[in-house]
Amino acid sequence: MRKPKILIISATKMEAEELLSLQINKLSERLFELEYKTLRLDLLITGVGMTAMTYHLGKQLQNNTYDFTILIGISGAYSTQTELGEVVNVESERFADLGILNGDQFTDLFDMKLNEKDVFPFENKVLKNYTLINNDSILALKTYHGNTVQTIRPNIIKGIQNNTDVESMEGAAFFYICLQERIPFVQIRGISNYVGEQNKQLWDISLAVKNLNKVIIETIEVWA
Question: Lower CB density within 10 Å: C or N end of the chain?
Answer without folding.
Answer: N
